[in-house]
Amino acid sequence: MPRLSSNFVIFVPFVVQSLLWQKGLAVCLLICLRQSDGSLLLAANRDERYDRPSSSPLLWGGKPRLWAGRDDQAGGTWLAVNEHGVVAAVTNRPIDVAPPKPTAGCTGQTPATRAQPPSTGLPGDQLNRPSRGGLPLLACRQATAKAAAMKTQEHLRGVAYNGFNLLIADRAAAYIVQNTGQPVLDSVSVGMHVMANRGWDDLADERVALAFGLIEKAGKGLHSGDTAQALEAMQSICRFHGQRGEPSLCIHSSLGGTVSSTLLAVSGEGKLLSYLFCPAAPCRGQYEELAGVLF
Ligand SMILES: [Zn+2]
After folding, report:
1. 6 alpha carbon to ligand 1 midpoint, in Å?
2. Does the pLDDT at position 177 exceed 90?
3. Dist. CA 166 → ligand 1 center (Å)
4. Which of 17, 87, 177, 204 could bridge 166 with an S-S bond, Cβ 3.0-4.6 Å?
5. To the nearest whole number, what is the mean pLDDT of the chain?
6. Cα distance between residue 180 and residue 162, in whole Å
7. How far is the CA of 286 from the centre of ligand 1 (A)?
8. Are 63 and 73 in contact (CB under 8 A)?
9. Strand pairing partners for 278?
10. pLDDT band at 194, cuts 50/70/90?
11. pLDDT band at 96 (very low <50, low <70, confident <90, very high)
């Protein structure tokens, strides 16, 4: 396998406890390793209500070809990748103004308390409420991350969404769109970063701090330059449980928890190397390599 260099970006949105599930705020964990040679490693724990239906990663129709799991309730996805090596992933985030009526899921819908936007043609529109899960799909219809970022920015000028973090990356560039009421687009530098529902590298968020700690601890596995070894290390991180009362990256509660986990590896040339998917909490299930099945 091609080797991974040591620089990377960590993107860890949403991680919440049972109380937030009860409030309807879902949580997600997303880790993106962006390297100086352009290669990418993305890891995503999808944290959802257990009763929200979804499908395993599949080939979506249209061009360019893209692959993504599907939120069967709203029709969007939490993570997508296309044939050009553009990856995009979204997580929910609290909004600073006009607090939303609680919704379920990483790819929930705009609450009824907000003004309804015009139809966007994206998943979720059957209720005229744009699903944030449509945003990775919109991004991955572009040939480059830069084009995807521009397209997303243009789209967001006319459509109001609930709060979210959206990561878009390819071998040449990476961007983050943070929406806490007003979408803001920033570029993502090569290096290590952690994002939770409050923003970049917020060590006040115990799970961001936890993720940094685990990455540091796994250092050799992630920094060895070997893709398979890095993926193995990332699996361990995605499975991590803290001691009682401590934060975890794989979560469980009565209403929801980590329902699946995905690991993606893209080479510095934009070639899709690995698409590992675990259709259950990664502490309980096994990752299956889908690259040979999907691509
Ligand atoms: Zn677990």
Report:
1. 27
2. yes
3. 24
4. 177
5. 81
6. 8
7. 12
8. no
9. 261
10. low
11. low
If one counts every other C-beta atom within 10 angstroms of the C-beta of residue 150, the result is 14
CA of 129 to the centre of ligand 1 (A): 32
Q: How confident is the model at residue 196 (pLDDT cuts 50, 70, 90)?
A: low
Per-residue pLDDT of 253-278, as tens digits, reads 999 999 999 999 999 999 999 999 99
Model pTM score: 0.83
Ligand 1 mean position to 138 CA, how many Å? 31
CA of 28 to the centre of ligand 1 (A): 13
Q: Which residues make Cβ contacts (< 8 Å) with residue 233, sequence separation at least 6?
A: 218, 221, 222
Please report the pLDDT score of residue 63 as a whole number: 95
Rounded distance from Cα 244 to ligand 1 centre (Å): 13
* Contact criterion met (CB below 8 Å) for 243 and 257: no
Contact 26, 105 (CB under 8 A): yes
69 within 8 A of 75, measured Cβ to Cβ: no
For the chain, what is the largest distance between any 2 Cα atoms, rounded to a whole number of angstroms?
50
Ligand 1 centre and the CA of 287: distance in Å?
14
Q: What is the pLDDT of residues 137-174, one digit of tens each?
A: 999 999 999 999 999 999 999 898 988 889 999 999 99
- Domain boundaries 18-294, CATH class: alpha beta
C-alpha 277 to ligand 1 mean position (Å): 15
Beta bridge partner(s), residue 60: 66
User: Which amino acid is located at 112 in the chain?
Assistant: A
Neighbours of 64 (CB within 10 A): 12
Task: Give the residue extent of every domain in the chain.
Answer: 18-294
Distance 253 CA to ligand 1 centre (A): 10
The distance from CA 127 to its chain's CA centroid, rounded to whole angstroms, is 24
